[in-house]
Design a protein that fits this description.
The protein is an alpha+beta fold. It is elongated, with a radius of gyration of 32 Å. The N terminus and C terminus are likely disordered.
Length: 253
């Protein structure tokens, strides 16, 4: 009998030791998302919305145009191969948008627009010097226009005031629209004057006026992606109009 009791005690001790060594079952995390759901990579309003095309019209402000003409400088077109052709349209030069992205950067337009390889040429007829300005890129987050002078490295040639995101995005048409003046940087004015042998450019003075019309990815919910907030829909406007005339729902108080 004593041997049987000792054997039973040994079995119980071994079982207890094995249970103590086994790992505890995993507990569900309090922050884990429910099964089948994924955690969003970015909060609403911080999404990059792809740009799928569009164009921008770059026009020379009248004051700068007059100053350049007084120094014998005229403006021409440059195609993607670098060929210069005469330019007779005082309304400006249009450049196609190849790609880019738009974001909401603190309530202002952010992101970047990259333009076609064509551009603008400045020709000094008095000394036959030419400067080609190509590789246009608009840094929306910094309010900067970058370009290459005579195929050199990209540099900031102008700056502009960043527009508000809500006023610039047409959610119905999925477009970014901007209408802004661009001032020339001190560094760009110095390089342009030296290359052309003129003094027509002044740092901080007018450089270009840009009208941008960029096509955004139509599959994106722009209101959510760019945190634009609620905008009145046609049905909202109809209800308010009906309330004001005593028809339909009463006006909101």
């Amino acid at each position: 009998m004593r041997a049987r009791h000792l054997a039973t005690a040994a079995v119980l001790a071994l079982t207890t030791a094995l249970l103590a060594a086994a790992p505890a079952p995993a507990q569900p995390s309090a922050t884990a998302p429910p099964s089948g759901e994924s955690t969003p990579a970015r909060p609403a309003g911080h999404t990059e919305v792809p740009v799928e095309g569009g164009s921008a019209r770059f026009a020379t402000p009248p004051a700068l145009l007059a100053a350049l003409k007084a120094h014998g400088v005229v403006i021409a077109n440059v195609d993607a191969q670098g060929t210069v052709t005469p330019h007779h349209d005082s309304g400006g030069i249009s450049l196609g948008i190849k790609r880019g992205a738009v974001t909401n950067s603190g309530g202002k337009v952010g992101g970047e627009l990259r333009f076609a390889d064509s551009g603008i040429a400045l020709i000094n007829r008095r000394n036959n010097k030419v400067v080609k300005v190509t590789g246009f890129t608009v840094d929306l987050g910094q309010g900067a226009l970058r370009a290459r002078l005579d195929r050199g490295p990209s540099m900031t040639v102008g700056t502009f005031t960043r527009p508000g995101i809500t006023a610039s995005i047409d959610t119905d048409a999925a477009r970014l629209r901007m209408n802004t003046g661009i001032t020339v940087t001190e560094a760009a004015a110095t390089k342009l004057n030296a290359a052309l042998g003129t003094t027509g450019f002044t740092g901080g003075g007018p450089l270009l006026h840009a009208r941008v019309d960029a096509a955004l990815d139509p599959s994106v919910d722009l209101g959510t992606a760019l945190n634009l907030g609620h905008r009145p829909t046609p049905s909202d406007a109809g209800r308010r109009s009906a309330g004001a005339t005593g028809e339909g729902e009463p006006p909101e108080r």
